[in-house]
Write a structure and sequence with these properties.
Layout: H1 11-29, E1 39-43, H2 49-57, E2 62-67, H3 70-82, E3 88-92, E4 105-111, H4 120-130, E5 131-142, E6 148-150, H5 154-169, H6 180-186, E7 190-201, H7 206-222, H8 225-230, H9 236-248, E8 255-266
Parallel strand pairs: 1-2, 1-4, 2-3, 4-5
Antiparallel strand pairs: 5-8, 6-8, 7-8
Helix pairs in contact: 1-2, 1-7, 5-9
């Protein structure tokens, strides 16, 4: 499903995804509500971090969750079993070869997937085929260019740019959040609505500092250290300085902001 998932599939990444989902649950999913009886497809479920949230909020839907990684699927299944969730069926498949008939789903849910793909427009066309007429697509993506913080640091920005550049080298786009509206419009979706969801973290919001600034964003940047240095995108000394400066945004006088974008659009 992913051209190249730059963050990897290790235990640390699994933990980061879980921390991210739990921290952002209210911000991103307070309105991820489907009518009872809906048949919903989740594309790129990964380790099930979003799946658990969706199922708990929508116990009366029929959810089908797919991912290309067998390892991730096993983790997702275990997580849902432990949470007592029974209304989801996991399928290991590539989204470009999904085993579904046309017009099979009322909704398609895609979270943090398009940023890793070289041709998101092709994915949207596939989504249109499996959606019923007047069915709805829900997309959630971040935008690494939306990160701003205090104290300001050119070195910190260089480390963030390493992540952006490495994803770009795979043909992917870590700035895709700002493109959701034109992507959906170009690919024939109707009634498009995009809402920015900004994360704001300072010492008065310790759960956001810990769950997002440290365990989600900085952890994500730290995960590409070896690739960035090996490819000489950044010098090791500059990397160390930049990461240290990023960590300062999580201290008592630090501030960190980041924007996600959530789009809802109707199939024609």
């Amino acid at each position: 499903m992913h051209n190249k998932y730059v963050h990897g599939y290790n235990h640390e990444e699994s933990n980061r995804l879980s921390d991210q989902a739990n921290t952002l649950s209210e911000l991103l999913h307070h309105d991820t509500i489907f009518p009872a009886g809906s048949k919903v497809l989740e594309i790129g479920c990964g380790v099930g971090a979003q799946t658990v949230i969706i199922c708990k909020q929508n116990p009366s839907i029929e959810l089908v969750s797919i991912d290309i990684s067998e390892h991730s699927i096993r983790i997702a299944e275990k997580r849902c079993r432990e949470a007592g969730i029974k209304n989801v069926n996991f399928i290991r498949t590539d989204l470009f070869n999904m085993p579904f008939l046309p017009e099979s789903f009322d909704y398609v849910f895609v979270c943090f997937v398009l940023e890793h793909l070289a041709d998101p427009g092709k994915v949207l066309q596939i989504i249109k085929k499996v959606l019923k007429p007047d069915g709805n697509c829900i997309l959630i993506e971040g935008d690494h260019g939306s990160a701003y913080y205090h104290p300001k640091s050119d070195y910190a920005q260089q480390t963030i740019e390493c992540l952006i550049q490495l994803q770009s080298q795979t043909g992917a786009d870590s700035l895709i959040g700002r493109r959701l509206y034109p992507l959906l419009k170009t690919n024939g979706f109707m009634n498009i609505s995009v809402s920015p969801r900004m994360v704001y973290a300072d010492e008065s919001r310790p759960e956001m500092v810990d769950g997002f600034t440290l365990k989600t964003f900085i952890a994500m940047v730290e995960g590409v250290k070896d690739m960035a240095i090996q490819q000489e995108i950044i010098h090791k000394d500059a990397w160390i300085k930049g990461i240290n400066d990023l960590h300062k945004t999580a201290l008592a006088d630090g501030v960190f902001c980041y924007t996600f974008f959530k789009a809802i659009a109707r199939n024609n």
